[in-house]
Amino acid sequence: MKKIIKILIFLSFLLGFSGLAYLQERSEEGLVIPNEEIGAPEIVYNKPVKGVLFSHKYHVGELGLSCESCHPKLFEMQALKAQENPDFNMNALYQGKYCGACHDGKMAFASNTKCATCHIGVKGLKRLEKEMKTGKK
Amino acid sequence: MIKRWFKEFKNLGNEEIEKIPDEERREFLKIGLIITGVFAGGSLLSVVSKVAEGLATPEELKNNYPYKPHYSMVFKIDLCIDCERCVEACNLTNQVPDYGWRTMILERYSSKAVDQKRIFLPILCNHCNHPPCVIACPTKATIKDSQTGIVKMVSYKCIGCKTCMTACPYNARYFNEERHAVDKCDFCWEKRLSKGITPTACVEACPAGVRIFGDLSDPLSEVYRLVHQLGKPVWVLKPETGAKPNVFYTIS
Which B residues 176-235 touch A at CB under 8 Å? Predict the structure, then answer.
């Protein structure tokens, strides 16, 4: 019995650590924070620059946009997939690709303004990571 | 008691300007003038205290810069996105340890702000014209280069008393355990400028064009153009210290 408990404790430690390691690995690529209320996650891109937030909570929850507004034409359904494309950068946005389809200065604020609204930076990224780990908002 | 006092206060007559005696008014104006004078002439564009009055002719201004080249950096802070590529590049170039820093990004965040909720503020050594750190150092381990105006460290002279760290208004210094000396930004003098490589590592790494580096005494340089225009606000951090920094902030 004692042995089983010991093994169980050991296993739980192992799982905990690997989970942490997994989280850290993921945050290099970006961050995907599930949101059950909306059914779509908060996404932080890390490429080409670190800490760029797309909030489903805002765009779907508050603005009431539908999935079809962006998926699958502007963005594939898989989170963080877009940052693998070599043209996922500000110039593409200015040409109306990706976020630039709406953020053109008419439908929504232009892509070359209000930088730090979407760019939450390394500081924002770290804050969200911490919130995710501790489960606090 | 308070009620009575409040009542009296309420019954006080209107103190219109006409009712103030002439003498008093004159004193008031005088004070006002003095205050305005200090503000405009002194610290707003502190670098070269002459900037404000010197805006007349660039030629005159040029002679007021004590260094050649007079290295300076201008930040367009609204473009900063805290991607921290500048920090990474700096750390790599200058072998800055994990616990230290030569440049960093500060953040101001307010959930109650209208529209954009955050703004980032990149900082580094301001390479002041009157550097408090240089004045404070007891062993002359930190010096103001007489040619370029760069505030440098002479590591072997540093005794690690950290007086300079306390003296610096910009928190631009840290103690490097490995070198057993205080370390700070030197505008990449050691690693780049002295070898003829420009600009600094942070400027080169910035993807958003936030940082502009150049010679403030050269009327053709971009830093000169940005600092001496009136269309957009230009400011320095903590002008009240009188350190006359050479790092300026503006918006795009």
Answer: 207-208
